[in-house]
UniProtKB/TrEMBL annotation:
Record's signal peptide: none
Name of this protein: Histidine ammonia-lyase
InterPro entries per UniProt: Aromatic_Lyase (IPR001106), Fumarase/histidase_N (IPR024083), L-Aspartase-like (IPR008948), Phe/His_NH3-lyase_AS (IPR022313)
GO MF annotation: an example: ammonia-lyase activity
Keywords, ordered alphabetically: Lyase
Length: 512
């Protein structure tokens, strides 16, 4: 059997996100894919005719595998998605839900799941027509895949629960799933045992959230490097730490890219001011090493996540004429990647917070006033902003504690080793907001550093630094800076996305 994937089109996670975006079209099965699906479905039929035991089809689920399944495959499939409908919490964003279903369909189309191409095409048609299930984010251990969230997605397809709708202005809303199906002229899906199992047995939800997190952490890294370059320029710090020769001496790929990103913000001929130390504190001098290490980890995670997206995460699988019972639904590859994304995110936020501390102190900002206020004592400048930034970093550290270290056995001892991949991915997603607020806090600091610098560079009209100056004008008197931090966060996120779009889009791309 030849199992075709979309690997040719999906060379990067950014390609995957675009392929699963609202309005994209999931291509139909090719002839070889359809043939492989038919072969596996026929193999399952033969096993059933021979009265061979098949997990979830002739036998029960989990520890109940020792008992016979319901006589009706539809009753068995319906029972599966019903008893797993125990998820709770706020729903995943619609983008994550669409990506999760896309990934599930990509797994099922490979010919290992014994699902007919006709059934698969019915699900693909719903996806192409915009049907998007509302999926609660909490309640899975990600061991037999993300059972609970995928069961809620299956229930939505069956007309139970809720679905997302999108108006002409692009705003998402929630309606009963049956109403959403009726609005597109579709009938509820009837889940037979094998089809239901193939849909819920998979790592696709944690994978979807991790893919989106990965892209956001990459943007965060680009923003921190951009701000670092601006700080180096404003302070007149030495550019030697960002020289390509330093990266060449070590040889780590990400370091080349991170150093170049910092150099992008420096004018030609930038040199160390005589008043600056020969070697800056590590929060400036070691940015290529820290951001570069993050980029290398992101590149490694991207390869693993892309492989996961292109593979079959189901159980059992039909391979070379045999039904094989195994554990491809175990989400450890995703879980460890997600844990690493959280650690990378924390490093970036910690680095930005330390740079904010540096420019707020006269010992680091070249003798400018403390807290970058023009009226020390009568004014407090960025004192509140820095305190909040410290709080954000602490919160991030609480959130990104590796979820793989919090595993507990469950399911009557059947699932005695679990990865907690979606829990981890959700926590990283939650940590992204405070991380961007730390970046926004540093950006407001950069705006005030610019305002207090006598020989500050004049930003070009319409550029990111000109926009930042408008967001956070000079502090003639203290004012609430929370709105400016949020606006600066959004500005940096947009600028980072634009800069990455101009490059090759890969975490360590174009380094040397």
């Amino acid at each position: 059997m030849t199992a075709l994937t979309e690997r040719q089109e999906l060379q990067r996670l950014a390609d995957l996100v675009r392929a699963a975006a609202f309005g994209a079209v999931l291509r139909p099965c090719g002839p070889e894919e359809a043939a492989a699906m038919r072969v596996s479905a026929a193999g399952l039929a033969e096993a059933l005719a021979a009265k061979d035991p098949v997990y979830g089809v002739t036998q029960g689920f989990g520890p109940l595998v020792v008992y016979e399944a319901a006589d009706s495959p539809v009753e068995q499939g319906g029972g599966l998605i019903s008893h797993l409908g125990s998820g709770q919490g706020r729903p995943l964003p619609p983008e994550a839900s669409r990506l999760a279903v896309w990934l599930r369909l990509n797994s099922m189309r490979l010919g290992y799941s014994a699902v007919s191409p006709e059934f698969w095409q019915g699900l693909a048609d719903l996806w192409n027509r915009g049907f998007t299930p509302v999926i609660p984010r909490d309640g899975t251990v990600s061991a037999s895949g993300d059972l609970q969230p995928l069961a809620h997605a299956a229930l939505s397809h069956a007309g139970t629960g809720e679905a997302w709708t999108r108006d002409r202005a692009g705003r998402w809303g929630r309606v009963p799933a049956a109403e959403a199906l009726a609005a597109i002229g579709a009938s509820p899906v009837e889940w037979s045992a094998r089809e239901a199992l193939a849909f819920v047995n998979g790592t696709s939800v944690g994978l979807a959230v991790s893919v989106l997190n990965h892209q956001e952490v990459l943007r965060l890294a680009r923003a921190v490097a951009m701000l670092t370059g601006r700080v180096v320029r404003l302070l007149g710090a030495s550019p030697e730490a960002y020289h390509t020769g330093v990266a060449r001496a070590r040889g780590q790929a990400g370091q080349f890219t991170a150093a170049r990103w910092v150099r992008d913000e420096l004018p030609a001929g930038h040199a160390r001011e005589p008043s600056r130390p020969l070697q800056e504190p590590y929060s400036l001098r070691c940015v290529p090493q820290v951001v570069g290490a993050v980029l290398d980890q992101l590149a490694a995670a991207e390869a693993i996540l892309l492989t996961e997206a292109a593979g079959c995460t189901d159980n059992p699988v039909y391979v070379d004429g045999k039904i094989l019972h195994g554990g491809n639904f175990h989400a450890m590859p995703v879980g460890l990647c997600s844990d690493q994304l959280g650690l990378c995110l924390q490093q970036l936020a910690y680095l930005a917070d330390r740079q904010l501390a540096l420019i707020c102190a006269p010992s680091g900002n070249g003798g400018l006033p403390p807290m970058l206020t023009p009226r020390p004592g009568g004014g407090s400048g960025l004192a509140g902003v820095q305190i909040s930034s410290t709080s954000f970093v602490s919160r991030i550290r609480q959130l990104v504690y590796p979820s793989s270290l919090t595993a507990l056995p469950t399911n009557g001892g059947n699932q005695d080793h679990v990865p907690m991949a979606l829990n981890g991915a959700n926590a990283v997603a939650d940590a992204l907001e405070p991380a961007w607020l730390v970046v926004g806090s540093l950006a407001v600091g950069v705006a005030q550093l610019t305002a207090l610098s006598a020989d500050r560079p004049r930003p070009e009209p319409g550029g990111v630094w000109a926009d930042l100056a408008e967001i956070s004008p000079p502090l003639e008197a203290d004012r609430p800076l929370a709105p400016e931090v949020r606006a600066a966060s959004a500005l940096c996120a947009r600028a980072a996305a634009d800069l990455l779009g101009e490059e090759d889009g890969s975490p360590g791309g174009g380094g040397r």
